[in-house]
């Protein structure tokens, strides 16, 4: 794949620049690497937040089911008394 004058290939699960294909300067390469690192860190943080939210959702759902079951038992108990 060619992107902004740079040839890339997908190798071992990662995009790698083909040797000699980069026509930009060294500063641009450093900037791109830094930006890539920032995006990877942001992605990791977002994954962590999603995991935490899923855990919270699971806990809340389990509590809700327990409360519903308890409520049904109380209703059943009340009906038997009448």
UniProtKB/TrEMBL annotation:
Species of provenance:
Bambusicola thoracicus (Chinese bamboo-partridge)
Task: Decide whether keyword Coiled coil is in the record.
Answer: yes
Q: Which InterPro entries match?
A: Chibby_fam
Indicate what this protein is called per its UniProt record: Protein chibby homolog 1
Any one GO BP annotation for this protein:
negative regulation of Wnt signaling pathway
Keywords, ordered alphabetically: Coiled coil
- Pfam families hit by this protein: Chibby
Q: A Gene Ontology CC term for this entry?
A: nucleus
- The UniProt entry's coiled-coil ranges are 22-77
């Amino acid at each position: 794949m060619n992107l902004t004058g740079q040839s890339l290939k997908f190798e071992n699960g990662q995009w790698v620049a083909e040797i000699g294909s980069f026509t930009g300067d060294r500063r641009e390469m450093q900037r791109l690497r830094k930006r890539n690192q920032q995006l990877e860190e942001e992605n990791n943080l977002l994954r962590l937040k999603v995991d935490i939210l899923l855990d919270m959702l699971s806990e809340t759902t389990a509590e809700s089911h327990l409360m519903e079951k308890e409520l049904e038992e109380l209703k059943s108990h009340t009906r038997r008394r009448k």
